[in-house]
Specification:
alpha/beta, DNA Cyclobutane Dipyrimidine Photolyase, subunit A, domain 3, Rossmann fold, 5-stranded parallel sheet, 19 helices, 5 strands, globular, binds flavin-adenine dinucleotide
Length: 394
């Protein structure tokens, strides 16, 4: 069995996708909500850590699906893929949600109830099991994440922000948008007044009878409040390709080989960004993915390569000045700590920079400012724009 923490190259991810397509995709719609406690037994792909770092992109996955299947046969899987795109786009429209979350985290107290929860000592068997599974494997099935977040917020009555932070530290696929906004969705803050309350019978059915926390869970959801946020979208002008690029920077939020242009200089992030709290397995996953990309690039690109860490600002500045680099291009890092760090870095380096946005994000994100179901109606038309018949037949 290929563990998902080892899916650190495009070839690994493609292999996992092919295995999922051969064995599971047909039953995905019917079975995806079951968590039998083992990725091999479950009917989901396990691709999210790789997608999240764009080791394999949404575009590449959709292309492979549409080359091999009719749209209707893989519709449910594509729709789930687009949930990711929806959350990413939504946070781009409402980036203040991220800033408020970080501010709240700084102010919140860490008490004994929190310690019991994150040390698997609540006495709720399923919840304690998921804590251990998450810490050990860096992964939880989507339905278990929903039950976990619901128990955290409504039964244990802990702040959702601390739960989201615990996930961010331990998930291999930790993603600022999907995680923060899913926690808010469970808490009833995304679609106002609509929360997700976990029930013992639902847990029993979808864990294949492994757990049934009868009498242990909240039966009512205490209302939780949030600020109102105003949307604004700043990416309409972004492009996805430039003809002549002198210098391109690769950071951990986009490790897709397909995005890398021909250029004279490549700046490549060396290790995982150290300012983010992450478990050892998450750090190792990112370091391995960066290392494998570095090896691949060295084999294939004639560019002069410089490896950097975010605290090597003097070294970077000297390199930029020596080589008269006037502008650095990079893939858009999306809302979160890497984007903030890059903005700061480019200011210190006093060099111009421009972010490129993938054609997938360019086409989907403008439709992500409202509910997911608005976006869902656009999926077939957007896929038609993205994939010409020729590309699918290739
Ligand atoms: C509280 C909570 C926190 C979450 N935090 C994260 C997170 O930090 N990072 C993350 O990538 N996902 C997060 N999710 C969404 C979802 O749980 C994972 O994307 C999914 O479990 C990944 O497993 P998979 O690759 O086997 O999914 P599959 O079912 O095989 O789906 C294929 C792909 O579609 C996307 N996808 C599927 N379901 C969702 C969903 N509900 N939301 C967003 N994208 C989805 C993912 O990219 C996934 O890899 C969270 C969900 C909840 C309820």
């Amino acid at each position: 069995m290929q563990l998902i923490k080892n899916i650190t190259t495009y070839n690994h991810a493609e292999g996992l996708l092919d295995k999922f397509l051969a064995d599971k995709v047909k039953r995905y719609g019917q079975m995806r909500n079951f968590d039998f406690g083992n990725i091999e037994k479950n009917f989901v792909s396990g691709l999210s850590p790789a997608i999240n770092k764009r080791i394999i992109s949404e575009h590449q996955i959709a292309s492979r699906l549409l080359q091999n299947y009719e749209y209707t046969d893989v519709e449910k899987f594509i729709e789930q893929l687009c949930w990711r795109t929806y959350w990413k786009g939504y946070l781009e429209h409402y980036s203040q949600i991220w800033d408020s979350y970080i501010k709240d985290l700084e102010a919140l107290e860490r008490d004994a109830d929190l310690a019991a929860a994150i040390n698997a000592k609540t006495g709720i068997k399923c919840f304690d099991h998921w804590v251990e599974e998450l810490i050990e494997t860096g992964h939880l099935h989507n339905h278990s994440r929903m039950w976990f977040a619901s128990i955290w917020v409504f039964t244990l009555e802990l702040p959702w922000q601390l739960g989201a932070s615990f996930f961010m530290e331990n998930l291999l696929d930790a993603d600022c948008a999907s995680n923060t906004l899913s926690w808010r969705w469970v808490s009833g803050l995304h679609t106002k007044g609509k929360n997700y309350l976990a029930s013992p019978s639902n847990i029993k059915k979808f864990t294949g009878q492994r757990f049934e926390p009868t009498g242990q869970l909240a039966t009512k959801a205490k209302p939780i409040t949030t600020d109102d946020y105003t949307g604004s979208y700043i990416h309409s002008e972004k492009i996805n390709k430039v003809k002549d690029i002198q210098c391109y920077m690769i950071h951990e939020n986009d490790l897709s080989y397909e995005q890398i242009p021909n250029c004279e200089f490549l700046l490549i992030q060396k290790y995982n960004f150290g300012m983010i709290e992450r478990s050892a397995i998450v750090k190792k996953f990112i370091d391995d993915a960066l290392k494998n990309l570095q090896i691949e690039i060295k084999k294939r690109s004639p560019a002069k390569i410089v490896f950097f860490t975010f605290d090597e600002r003097k070294k970077l500045k000297a390199f930029i000045e020596k080589n008269r680099i006037s502008k650095i291009y990079s893939s858009y890092p999306t809302v979160g700590p890497i984007e903030k760090e890059l903005e700061d870095l480019f200011t210190v380096l006093t060099v111009k920079h421009e972010y490129l946005l993938s054609s997938w994000d360019q086409l989907f994100w403008p439709h992500t400012s409202k509910g997911y179901f608005k976006l869902r109606t656009k999926i077939p038309a957007i896929l038609n724009t993205l994939f010409t018949r020729k590309e699918l037949d290739a």
